[in-house]
Design a protein that fits this description.
By secondary structure, the chain is α/β, with parallel strands linked by helices. It has 14 helices and nine strands. Strands 1, 2, 3, 4, 5, 6, 7, 8 and 9 form a nine-stranded mixed beta sheet that branches. The longest helix has 22 residues, at 270-291. The protein is globular and about 60 Å long. The chain starts with 12 loop residues before the first strand and ends with a helix.
C-alpha cells in the first residue's frame, strides 16, 4: 500500500470493485465512492479490461493514492476478482460494488456504530435503467415485490433498525421472495475470513446468490443488523450480463440452481435444507420466466440439450407446494411442456 495510505487499523469500509470494460460508467461509480465521508479504501480489480478502464482507474488513483488501490488480473470473471479484493481488504467492513453501478449513501458510520454485535448489515437497493426510470428486475413476482417495497418505502424509513439472528432472517427472506441483493450488505471482514466465505468460481450468473446463501449458512449464531437505508443504486444496462437472453445464459442460471439443490442435499438439518432448496427452485423459476421465455427461436433450439423433464417436474412441484398462481409461472410450465414435447 502507498506510504500515504490510511493505516489499515483505521479503515472502516473496504469497497471492493471488479472492473471489466466499464469506461462509460466507471467515473460515476468512483465519484459515488469517493463522496463517502467515512474512513475507506477503494480496491479496484481490473479483470483484464480491453478498453480504457485501466487508464481511468490510474487517473483516479493518482489523485487519491491514499484511498485507491488497483489489482490487475487476467480476465477470470467477477468471482475471482471479488475474492482477490477480499484477500486484499484491510477494512473492518467489506462492501461490494460493480463498476457500472453507484452507491446511494455518503456515510455509514452513523449506522455501523450500532453493528458491534453484527456480522452482516443489510439495507435496500433501488434499481433503474440507464435513463433513470425505476424498474423491477426478474420475474413478475419479483417485480411485484419490488413495486410493493417502493410503494411502502416510507414505512421502511420509519422502521427502527433491528438486530436479528441471521437464520431467522433468512427464513423470512425465503418465505417472502429470495433475491440475493448481495450489494445491499456490509460484510464484516473477520466473519468472511473466519468462515472462509468466498464467491464460487465457475458460475457466471447467480454466483451472488450462492455467496449470500453461504453467508446465512455459515453459523447458527450469525447476527444481522437490518437498517432502513437504501444503500445501492443498481443500473441495468442494455448490454449488461442480465440482458443477454441466450441459451448459454439460461444454462448458467440453471447451473446455479443445480448447485444450490445439491448444497441443500448435503444439509442434515431439514428446515435449513428446505430453505436452501426453496432458493434453488426460486432461481429455477427465474431462469424459465426471465430467460427461457425471452429466447429467440434460434436460441431455443440451442437449449434443447439444457431443458429437461426434471426441470418441468420441479416447476410443477414448486407451483403446487407454494400454491403460486402467477401467470408467468404457469406460462413457463406450459411453454416448457410444449417445448419438451417437440423432442
Amino acid at each position: 500500500m502507498n506510504n500515504n495510505s490510511v493505516q489499515a487499523a483505521d479503515i472502516l469500509i473496504s469497497f471492493v470493485v471488479p472492473v471489466y470494460n466499464d469506461v462509460p460508467y466507471l467515473a460515476n461509480c468512483l465519484n459515488s465512492l469517493l463522496a463517502v465521508r467515512d474512513r475507506k479504501e477503494i480496491i479496484l480489480i481490473n479483470d483484464g479490461s480491453t478498453d480504457n478502464s485501466l487508464a481511468i482507474m490510474q487517473e483516479y488513483q493518482a489523485k487519491h493514492p491514499e484511498i485507491i488501490r488497483i489489482i490487475n488480473q487476467p480476465n477470470q470473471g467477477v468471482s475471482v476478482a471479488r475474492n482477490n479484493g477480499i484477500e486484499a481488504a484491510c477494512g473492518e467492513w467489506i462492501f461490494f460494488v460493480d463498476g457500472d453501478d453507484e452507491i446511494a449513501f455518503n456515510e455509514a458510520s452513523s449506522f455501523l456504530k450500532d453493528a458491534a454485535a453484527a456480522d452482516l448489515v443489510k439495507g435496500f437497493l433501488v434499481g433503474s435503467n440507464q435513463f433513470g426510470q425505476v424498474i423491477g428486475l426478474g420475474s413478475e413476482y419479483m417485480k411485484a415485490k419490488l413495486a410493493e417495497y417502493h410503494l411502502n418505502k416510507g414505512a421502511y424509513q420509519k422502521t427502527v433498525s433491528r438486530l436479528v439472528n441471521a437464520s431467522g432472517y433468512f427464513k423470512d427472506l425465503v418465505q417472502s421472495i429470495f433475491t440475493p441483493e448481495f450489494t445491499t450488505y456490509f460484510y464484516r471482514r473477520r466473519f468472511l475470513n473466519q468462515h472462509h466465505l468466498r464467491f464460487p468460481v465457475g458460475y457466471t450468473l447467480g454466483e451472488d446468490s450462492i455467496f449470500v446463501v453461504e453467508c446465512y449458512l455459515a453459523s447458527a449464531d450469525t447476527q444481522l443488523l437490518e437498517i432502513n437505508r437504501i444503500l445501492y443504486h443498481y443500473i441495468i444496462r442494455s448490454n449488461s450480463a442480465v440482458s443477454h437472453f441466450t441459451a448459454a445464459s439460461l444454462k448458467a442460471v440453471l447451473n446455479t440452481s443445480d448447485y444450490l439443490a445439491q448444497r441443500a442435499a448435503r444439509i442434515a438439518d431439514e428446515p435449513r435444507q428446505m430453505l436452501v432448496m426453496a432458493v434453488a427452485l426460486t432461481i429455477m423459476e427465474h431462469a424459465f420466466e426471465y430467460y427461457f421465455q425471452r429466447l429467440s427461436p434460434e436460441e431455443r433450439e440451442k437449449a434443447r440439450h439444457i431443458c429437461t423433464q426434471e426441470h418441468l417436474s420441479a416447476l410443477k412441484l414448486w407451483q403446487r407446494e407454494t400454491q403460486r398462481t402467477v401467470p408467468s409461472l404457469q406460462r413457463s410450465i406450459d411453454e416448457l411442456s410444449a417445448f419438451l414435447a417437440q423432442n
